[in-house]
Amino acid sequence: MKNFHDVTGYLYSLRNRGARLGTGRIMRLVKALGSPQDSFDSIAIGGTSGKGSTAIMVSSILKNGGFRVGTFTSPHLSDLTERIKADGKDISKQELSEIILKIRETAESPDASLEPPTFFEAITAAAFLHFRNRGVDYAVLEVGLGGRLDATRASKPLLSIITNVSLEHTRILGSTVEKIAYEKGGIIEPGGTLVTAATGKSLKVLEGICRERNAKIIRVGKEVLLHRTGAGPEGQEFSLRLPRASYESLKTPLLGEHQVVNAACAVAAVAELKVGMPGIKETALRKGLAEAKWPGRMEIVKKHPLVLLDAAKDPEAIACLRRTLESDFPRKRTITVLSISSDKNIDAMVRGLAPVTETFVIARHRTMERAADPRVIAEKIRKHGGRCRTVPEVKKAVAEAVKLAGKEGMVVVTGSLFTVAEARELFQEKNAEWGREFNELSPRQEVFKD
Length: 450
Description:
Layout lengths: L3 H13 L2 E3 L2 H9 L8 E6 L4 H14 L4 E4 L11 E3 L2 E2 L2 H15 L11 H16 L3 E5 L16 E4 L7 H4 L3 H8 L8 E4 L3 H13 L3 E4 L5 E8 L2 E7 L4 E7 L4 H18 L7 H10 L7 E4 L3 E4 L5 H14 L5 E5 L7 H8 L5 E4 L11 H10 L4 E3 L3 H12 L4 E5 L2 H8 L22 E3 L1
Parallel strand pairs: 1-19, 2-6, 2-7, 3-6, 7-8, 8-9, 14-18, 15-16, 15-18, 16-17
Antiparallel strand pairs: 3-4, 4-5, 10-11, 11-12, 13-14
């Protein structure tokens, strides 16, 4: 591929600089690039979890409504190109290479007097350029970290979604849900609209921000009421009641009750946009939900035994996984393949999985030396009364779990996006030029605020 090595070297150089929150650099960079973010309308999606799946659902509905849609998500499962989509298709490696080289040329121009961007800022700017090149009508932008100081703030959204708020990145975003909600609430535009499924203290913070900014708020559980009416390996069915419309027998292939909540956010957001876009028909909404796919998130990749991949990486996500296993797969004997990154709350994650797991197969994902020592995980499993064995390589661990489960059992692969990505290669091989090493900082790197 033309210039591939130059691009790879530049991406590594940006990644090795670490991350720095703040909007000054990205604003100066996109201005020097001709302000590509001004060529389309955008929808910002923040929250602790569910951002990516909600973005995919919003994008799919808009696409089925006849609009050209750009989608920007992070992190990626296998390859960096997955982060940037136009009309549901990943940016090509050639297109991304050319755009990254343009960004480097602009950033290093002596006339521009620009500070080098961070890795995430460069990829965000690349998404904006690709969306302009493809002539998208709407860009659906998943916030990277927090919201108030995130690079995606370079684009001012028509509407914002905050899926939920819980403790995460506390060293960076704050030690309480209120502080984290304040950071995430930074994506709410003055006079704009927020759709949220947040609850409790975090919701009160978001409501306060909306009052201060004269922004409309639409809350799942109040203005939006939902009822899940069915669930199984093929997906879920639910009904919704919105301020201006009601929908029965909506279907999504995404599993887990939390995905119904995410779908409610997506539908409520599109319904709000629909006020000014009568071209979005109910058929587009139904088809968009039915076609939305989000690999590696409660994804079934094999039927006998049932193999489910879920990139749950914290206790809250593990709790969602556990509820799904208990409610939708109650009679399955479950073998869990588990590899967790070393900076996570391993004890809480194991505690959540132990009651629904017959045997754990502990592995160690290969990404950037981030994986926890299997001995540490085994100690936690024994503490919570579980049985385990260790098979260090993820793919071999999955093969072992499949044998243990038998044709009528179930294998769950979880603990990290990295774990799921490695396991998924057994079922859907993908040639990744810019792979998982570009997903997260190494444990030795810091995130700073400007």
